[in-house]
Each structure stands twice: as structure tokens, then as C-alpha cells.
């Protein structure tokens, strides 16, 4: 592999996005979890849930801070690394990019008020109401930024003449065909990932022997949320697959190693390709790809061979799809088993294997987020703006990207370590039970 400017620009962008998405995902999902915990706390007058909301909100500030830094870096890198793309597309995506910033400030302002007004209002619900603009702000910024990504997949709202955009209609560009499925899937997967991460933390505490009420209630709530949200992601994932089959068939075909157009197409799970390009060692589920593409086992699914050879996405994205879907099934299975076992008094839902599975589900959900984005981004190759501009045409011609790459890698390493250390310190010095005594000394 030759490390030219384009390759280095791609690597630097990929690294930045893969780091940023961790914090962005938590940023979208966590406000919802905080709002749910505080809601239950007020409703049942239960200090444990109120404490949960407080502690989650406190941890959330750290991840928001890192998200702001990496988000700003992305903005800078876009213009520095992809100047031709920004020159052409900049005018049309400026609107959603601006609205994302606006949504972020909206969220940040109310988050600030939320954090400083615990116990300051007469009515408890007044404080809870502040979670609504925070949730709206964070989910709206996901909506706007995903709109830009959707635009890169299905650009519309302009005409291209001599390399310049004319007749620009930014609203039409935002309402592009890929937008609904992507926004739904991104928001739903952020919710499930945040729930799964909080569940993993609760499971970890219980495995370490902290079996207090606080930990058990936190575990029940977060796993129940994982269960509900995992139903949502299977619906939105299905919508995404149907969208691809319809509008971006080459991405689905590459992800599914589906080479010939046919009806009753099989779903290929894992497997390998031999030298002749034949599929081996796969798990083959008859006709299910057709069903995924169009809700009937006889739907015709367009094969990769219909795409010109130099416009085919790399075939390794298949493994990204498999990883993402397997983890989705794992999340659904563990949360369902826990919720069921927890209902039956005789059964012990707090058994070690199940707790270990819940512990694993947090990091795994984040792996699925990364796999999903790699699938979506690499699956768009070779295009930066599908049908209009290839990645190679958009990159910078500067040759100092190599050093920049190393510097940013170090920066992310330091940021990542700092975030983890601060979070651990924050909670280690104040265990839940101690904090509960301090804040709610007169409870029942
Ligand atoms: Fe996913 C992406 C499907 C699960 C995360 N996904 C995606 C796609 C598809 C899918 C088709 C592509 C789209 C485009 O590109 O447009 N999924 C799916 C399914 C499932 C899933 C079917 C099963 C249920 N996911 C999942 C999970 C997760 C995810 C579990 C995590 C948690 N994805 C994701 C992401 C992405 C994806 C992040 C990127 C974005 C978009 O949407 O694109």
C-alpha cells in the first residue's frame, strides 16, 4: 500500500471520526437515560433513581467536553484535508452544519442550567423539564450532522456545471433520500449504546461485590432500556437495508457478497472468498437477503456485477455488516434473558454468566457503532459524493499529512486516557451508597 496524500488524508479522517463517534454516540444517548432516571425518581419518590440521574449527568459532562474538542477538530480537518470537496459541497452543506452547531449550543445551555439547578426549584418537575431541551438539542445535532452524511450518499438539490454547483437548494439537499433511514438508525443505536454502557457499569459493580439497592436498580433500569432500544434498532436497521437495496444497491451487494442479480437471494453470514472469488465457509440463510431487501422472499436483489468495476466498494465491509448484526442480536438476547429472568422470583437474574454478558454488551455496542460507520463510509467508496465526485479528487495535495497524523494520534491517546482517568476518579472517591447518605439522610 502506498501512503500518498489521499491515503493519509483518509487515514487521518477515519481516525478522527472513529474517536469522535465514541463521544458523539454517548452524547446523543445519555440525556435520554438521565431523563428516564430522573423521571422515575420523581414519580416514585425514590432517591436511588434521583441519585442515578445526578451521577450519570456528572459523568456525562466529561464525555461532552471531549466530544466538543474532537467535533471541532473534524470541522477543521474537513476544510484542510478535503478542500475540493468543501469548495464544491461547502455551500450546500453549510446550512445543516450551521444548524448542528446551533443545536449543540441549545443543548449545552440547558445542560448547564440543568447541572446547576438540582434542588433549586420548588416543584421537582421543573428541573426535570430541563432534560427535554437537552434531549432535543443532542438528538437534533445527530439529525443535522447525519443529514450531511446522507447527502454524501445520495446528493441532490443542485446542478453541477463545470465543477461548480448552481441552482442550490439546501433544503432539498437536506431532505435527501438517505436521510430518514440514516437518522433513525443513528439515533436509535446511540440510545441503545448508552443504555448498554450504563448497564455494563452496573454489572461491573455487582460483579465486584457491590450488590446494594442502587446498583441493582441501575442494572434493572439500564437493561430494560437496552431491551426496548434494541427492538428499535432492529426496525431501523431493517429500514436501512431496504433503503440500500432500493437506492444504493452496490453498498448492500458488497456488504452481502451478492454478486449476481437474483430473486430469492440468500443471506451470507461470515465466510471467506477463495482465489476465484467464490464464497466458502459461510453460514447461508436461504432467501433472507431478499426478505431484508424487500419484505418478500422473492424480492429481486441487484448484484454487485451490475456496478462498473472501478465503482465497487471493497468486499471486506461484509465483515463489518456481520459484526454489527451479530452484536445487535447479542444485545437483544442478553437483555431479553435478563428481563425475563428478573420477572420470575425463583430465578436469579444476577447470576455470574449473565452479568458477564451484560458487562460485555457495553463495549460490544460501541464496537457495533464503529462497524456500522465503517460499513456506511467504506461502502460509499470510491465516492465522496456518490455519482459526482470521487474521494481521490477531493483530497488535499499537501504532503505534510503524515506528521499531522502522528500528532493527532497522540492527542487522541492523551484525551482518551484523560477522560477515563477523570471518570474513574470522579466515581471512585464517592461510592453511590455514601453519596446517598449525604444527600438523602432522612430516607425511609
Ligand atoms: Fe446498523 C449502518 C443495518 C444493527 C450501528 N446498519 C447500517 C446500515 C445498514 C444497517 C443496512 C448501512 C446504512 C447506510 O449506509 O445507509 N444494523 C443493520 C441491521 C442490524 C443493525 C439489519 C441488526 C438489527 N447497527 C446495528 C447495531 C448497531 C448499529 C446493533 C450499534 C449499536 N449501523 C450502525 C451505525 C451505522 C449503521 C452507527 C452507520 C450509520 C448509518 O446508518 O449509515
Automatic annotation (TrEMBL):
Q: Which UniProt keywords apply?
A: Cell membrane, Electron transport, Heme, Iron, Membrane, Metal-binding, Transmembrane, Transmembrane helix, Transport
The GO molecular function terms of this record are:
electron transfer activity; heme binding; metal ion binding; oxidoreductase activity, acting on diphenols and related substances as donors, oxygen as acceptor
List each coiled-coil range: none
Query: Which Pfam families does the entry mention?
Result: Cyt_bd_oxida_I
From the record, give the transmembrane residue ranges: 17-40, 60-82, 88-116, 128-152, 183-206, 218-237, 316-341, 353-376, 403-424
The primary location reported for this protein is membrane
- What cellular-component terms does GO give this entry? cytochrome complex; plasma membrane
How does it sit in the bilayer?
Multi-pass membrane protein
Q: Which GO terms describe its biological process?
A: aerobic electron transport chain
| Highest taxon above the source species | Bacteria
Give the family this protein belongs to, as stated in its UniProt record.
Belongs to the cytochrome ubiquinol oxidase subunit 1 family.
Q: Return the protein name.
A: Cytochrome D ubiquinol oxidase subunit I
